Amino acid sequence: MGKETRLDDILTQLDAGLDAALDRLLRFLEIPSISTDPAHAGDVRAAASWLAAELEELGFAVQVHDTPGHPMVTARSEPGGARPLLFYGHYDVQPVDPLALWDRPPFQPALEDTPQGRVIRGRGASDDKGQLMTFVEAFRAWKAVHGALPSDLILLFEGEEESGSPSLRPFLEAHAGDLRADLAIICDTARYADGRPAITTQLRGLVGQEVVVHAADRDLHSGSFGGLAANPIMILAQALAALKDDTGRVTLPGFYDGVQDLSPELTRDWQALDFDAAEYLGRVGLSHPIGEVGRTALEMVWNQPTAEINGIAGGYAGDGFKTVLPAMARAKVSFRLTGTQDPQAVRRAFQEHVRRCVPADCRVEFHDHGASPASVMDISDPAFGQAREALGAEWGRDAAYIGAGGSIPIAGDFKQLLGIDSMLIGFARDDDRIHSPNEKYDVESFAKGARSWARILSALR
Amino acid sequence: MGKETRLDDILTQLDAGLDAALDRLLRFLEIPSISTDPAHAGDVRAAASWLAAELEELGFAVQVHDTPGHPMVTARSEPGGARPLLFYGHYDVQPVDPLALWDRPPFQPALEDTPQGRVIRGRGASDDKGQLMTFVEAFRAWKAVHGALPSDLILLFEGEEESGSPSLRPFLEAHAGDLRADLAIICDTARYADGRPAITTQLRGLVGQEVVVHAADRDLHSGSFGGLAANPIMILAQALAALKDDTGRVTLPGFYDGVQDLSPELTRDWQALDFDAAEYLGRVGLSHPIGEVGRTALEMVWNQPTAEINGIAGGYAGDGFKTVLPAMARAKVSFRLTGTQDPQAVRRAFQEHVRRCVPADCRVEFHDHGASPASVMDISDPAFGQAREALGAEWGRDAAYIGAGGSIPIAGDFKQLLGIDSMLIGFARDDDRIHSPNEKYDVESFAKGARSWARILSALR
After folding, report:
1. Does A312 contact B289 at a Cβ distance shorter than 8 Å?
2. Nearest residue on chain A to B223, judged by CA atoms?
3. Contact check, Cβ <8 Å, B225/A331
4. Which residues, at least 6 apart from B20, have a Cβ–Cβ distance to it below 8 Å?
5. What ipTM goes with this model?
6. Is a pLDDT exceeding 50 seen at residue B168?
7. I need a labelling partner for B160 at 20 to 30 A (CA). Which of A356, B31, B318, B438 fits?
8. Burial level of A264, CB count in 10 A (0-12/13-18/19+)?
């Protein structure tokens, strides 16, 4: 039989096995693997064991690795001379507070019929157990049809994604040889807002910087010192205000080094998304896109860097009024990066700018938070075109290459520590309520997600 | 006997009676008249009664007026065709927290010998019971020598000064006819920093304004919305930063209307104070005076208006980092006013400025706090020259006309509701620790303070 026919068999197998697959997912969702809560450490391990058992049954060579935190589950299929692919997902989940807002116990998952269709309701349904299981069900159906797993698969399932992944980078460093594939495939993202399938091909990087301006060695009375003594809030406000010019451009010298204009291909793709900035902003009560004059809204969110103030505090901001000149003021500032912008160079440029704004008798203190470059995948890799075609066939509409305004640290880690790009494909919806009460995953996302992987695997194997 | 001789007798009488006067003050200080604490309401009333009894014994016609808060004590001497004078002080005190930092119980006052001289230690010793009693002891000595009180005195002693004086303005309005004098004399200020006697002839006014900038109707993720959605912290920072130009001048249109350059007389006087801005700032860890280029430091603090940010808050400013675009940001801003600056015009100009900085899809909310004009006394009133001469004679050094960077609301209230200027003379020292643990009043301040009032009364009667 030819490849086409076998794919059809796999898809038929998936459809026939959907109820059993949903049952398995419900069992997985019953395990309260909340990684951030030490009281659930045993449950996190139980989820790892459950997953390891599933994978072993399918014929993978499985290992559950202890770490200083929660276990890493790795699994490998037989080598077969194909391009090695590294599949990533995570089996831990977010806490469930506030519990009172759940319509059902978060770890007693169930299928529910809703006006928008049938959904799987429960903590982790979408993020990320349901998505992770789309991989597993595709592998299972492949095995049922072919009698063997696809060759050259490496699986990495993490149990700390929702608690900052403290063990991930050391683990990747220690096992880089075993994990090095040609491409990583990550299922932890969503379809495009309108439901069409999407491949995320670029992610913004992030530099986080805290700045504290110190003036007098104590709080001063504004009657006795106002007009004479430096006010650290004003110094900070002036330094931060000067970060952008009237056209919305960031003023730091060299800030735009490495920022690349969008390629004609992505320009066309993004235009086809018909992104409605007014509708997007309207959902949160705004109407007017800010940002550099002359850029489209999607460019601003996905392909342009930002300078944002995320927090500020100084002096007395409670009820009433206090005529104080405070001793200090602080702000948290972040920069989203694109292209090949250098996080350390951006940090330095910001610090130098602030230092220039601070008078000689005042002092500035910096606390560095994260620094990661943007991830821009090489979409000339044929895998991207093949995956895109496979997704289009499954969903009956063109798959989109999209960007993401936020960072997904795992993609940066794979690039930095394993030297490989990631193909980010996920089937979640914006209304899945991940991290919130009443999390759900559409049965359509789950069923067609697994079918999508069967098609992609078929194209890549 | 001539006036001179009687003054000498009064001064002799004061010196001879100092120990008894100190005893009386210690009894007064034993009453814990903390006005802000409802548990001490009875003590506040007890202090009013104690004072009323003292004044009655001296021959004043005394009234203790109930108010919605604490009592007002008023007292009058006989009319005699002299210029009526209104003496003001307050008999309530600040709370004593933190109690553990006191070297002795705050309401078990005592005389203490210190390397800097003999002091009266206890809550209220300086602020304001000790200062208030300098009036009373001067009246007592006058009566002892003359057989009668000075004529045409009106006394007003308040019990709510340390808790915002909520009953004061209604009381002044209701009793304006009875209280209207030619001049108010207030004993609630300090000598100049170097210890020379001083008359405060101008006080800055104050406008307090809270501003809240609202952007999105919820906190946003800076990955999903950064670069596209308005950031209220940035809007606020830009609006506040623009309040001052590079030379330190406030940029609000019309802001300087009514600000007056210092008269040649006060320019000379203030220069003679040898104010050392470097020393003054050095005490709080600073060295560089800010403010409008070309102004002296004393001008900046006493005769120039200010625009200061007293508090700011928005987004996440705690430990760690949160990539949030907050829904709102707020700041508390105050303006110190001089000359005839109109508080309402300043408030309007600020609000209009902020509104111009806020994009159409965002919203700004203002909360008005206090608004009081500057108080500039008419020092051509002969009483000022006479008081200055009397102080010089007592202290053996020229008395200074000084300004105050802060406002003293009672002076504005007297001006507004009774139509009279105030002569602010006090004997406190900068190191008296008012409002703090271990408050003290120098015995020298008390003794020479009472003698100063005897001299001033003698000159004005």
Report:
1. no
2. A406
3. no
4. none
5. 0.89
6. yes
7. B438
8. exposed
